[in-house]
Amino acid sequence: MSEERPEGLEERLTHEIASEFQAELDHPLDEADWARIKQEVKARLRAELARRKAEAERATPKEAEEYFVRFSLNVRAQHFVLAVGVLLLIFTGLPIKFHESVWAKYFFHVISLELSRLLHRVGASLLIGVGIWHMLYLLTTEGRREFRELLPRPKDLFDFLQNIKYLLGLSHERPKFGRFSYIEKFDYWAVYWGMVIMIGSGLLLWFHNLALGLFPKYVLDIAREAHSDEALLATLAIVIWHWYNAHFNPSVFPMSTTIFTGKISKKRMMEEHPLEYEQVMASSPPAPLPAEGEEKAEAEQP
Amino acid sequence: MKRLIVLLGIMGSLIVSSWPSFSQRDPNARCLLECHGKPDFKREVVPGQFKSLYVDYEQLKVSVHKEKLCVDCHTDVTAIPHQRRPEQIHCLQCHYQGNVVGAPVRERPEKYKESVHGKAFERGDPNAPDCKSCHTVHAVRPPTDPLSPVYKANIPKTCGGCHIEIYTEYVESVHGQALRNNVLESAVCSDCHREHDLFPPDDPRSSLHPQNVANTCARCHSDVKIMERRGVPVKQVEAFKKSFHGIAIEFGILKSANCTSCHGYHKILSSRDPRSPIHPLNLAQTCGQCHPNASDNVARGRFHIIPSDPEAGIVFWVSQFFKWLTISVLIGLFLHIAIDLYGRFRRAGGTSHE
């Protein structure tokens, strides 16, 4: 079945409706009649286009959608350990910061401070572990390549300004992001700041008996304050900023599975990382068959 | 007949001059006249050993019980002179909550039965104090009366009657010294140990249970008026509760330090006193009780700091840095999210999405 183009469809509909109207009326069509006809055409046209769109979507099964591999298994595993560690640290750390609150009292009533302390140190070990893991990862070819992509560049500043303009409607041009947008780069580098503060101060507090022999008391006081304050900043940044940009924003709400499956749809790839998309398409000609590769493989539907 | 009258008159004047504190019409006169009013009235407990049964009626007449009759308390005395030895009376006959005779029950004296003293008394410990050990027998005066053994300034001596060693420690302490200088708001035994509900420190009901120590000290040390008058910092308890020690105690790690772990208890001394465990030169040893590597480093820094208070020194500045960092970063992030949402919905609701 060959679908007619919307312009042709509009013409045909106008014709049909006009003759329907004429059949019911005993006088020639006047201006008021034409206005009603136009409205009717608009409504039918909209319904017809919506129907066609839904049909087209049904015709493309989800599994056959084109996707790219955005994150390697190594990166996904790192993120997973980091996420578990950080959540564990937040859950067992915040009740200490807000120990006067009712929920903190309830929390410690249920799991006891001793167990909470132990879990906090498990979380800390995961955090330190993934930190070391990431440093080693940066020595690998893949790690070095990803790191280069994550380095801040002047383009990020321009992208940021352009994006604000675009979002405010001051410009129609959307910034073209590469593999990592300035938002993702900010998240990546913010983790360095957080890791240095939290692990540094956390180790002093964990091994306070050792630290007391080495440093003046005020160093531990500073460590405690910094640990507590940076913890809140990091928690808010993750829960509000990171989760919004990665999961809660309207285009992927309620969550994006990319960081867990590694897959990103072609549509999102083109929208969110157009430069990377262009690069990938330029460097590797579209494979005719579903290819299984480590990086940026494509699964073409037949 | 005339001689008889003269004799009676002499006798009468003798009676009046020797027992001037009660009249024949005094309802207690019958107890006093022949027996308990006589200073040498006594009973032989064991052969050769006597117990005085004299009652200093003048003392009774200025006591809180001046309106009472002897038999109001000695209720088993139904005939005078009594044939049997009266039972020991108990103050709780009247001083229980809800009594109808109007006996004051300010501190719930029945708690005494649960206290260390009450338990010891129940076990039959001959040294265990009961009500009269502190309040005396017939000369009970209100705690506001400077002559009362439970008047604040007299309490250390009253308790010290049995707890002699602790008394000698206490008088050297800042609290003991202040009390000697007539500072009545200084802490005495009962301010920390309580009066009637006096429990051992491992009892959770005790005011000196590790989880309650800070609040016990806070009764005075968080009182701005008292502390300002004495020139003592007032935020120490609040700071302790925010510290790791305070939080650990709050949630049940009782081995964590409380006020007394560092400051001592009966012999609390100023940090300027070289004998004090919190004197800078002694801090390494004091902290070392729990923290094995504690060195003189522990004296380098302020104690009892509240990060939001400028007195916290460098910690205050660290806290300020993070406060403003957090505020400015979050304003930025929120703005970006708001602009992002605005942009997305504006374009979605607009003409078409390219």
Short synopsis of the structure:
Chain A is an all-alpha fold. Chain A is 72% helix and 2% strand. In chain A, helix 1 crosses helix 2 (31-59), helix 3 (73-97) runs antiparallel to helix 5 (113-137) and helix 3 packs across helix 10.
How would you sum up this structure, described in words?
The complex is a heterodimer of chains A (302) and B (354). Chain A has 302 residues and is mostly helical. Chain A has helices at residues 6-24, 31-59, 73-97, 102-111, 113-137, 141-150, 154-168, 182-206, 208-214, 217-248, 258-261, 266-272, 274-283, and strands at 67-69, 263-265. Chain A is built from 13 helices and two strands; from the N terminus they run ααβαααααααααβαα. A two-stranded antiparallel ribbon of chain A has the order 1-2. The longest helix of chain A is centred in the last third of the chain and has 32 residues, at 217-248. Chain A starts with 5 loop residues before the first helix and ends in a 19-residue tail after the last helix. In chain B, a hairpin with a 2-residue loop joins strand 1 and strand 2. Chain B has a two-stranded antiparallel sheet. The model of chain B has no long low-confidence stretch (mean pLDDT 88). Among the domains of chain B are: 30-89, no CATH class; 199-263, no CATH class. The interface between A and B is large, with 41 and 46 residues.
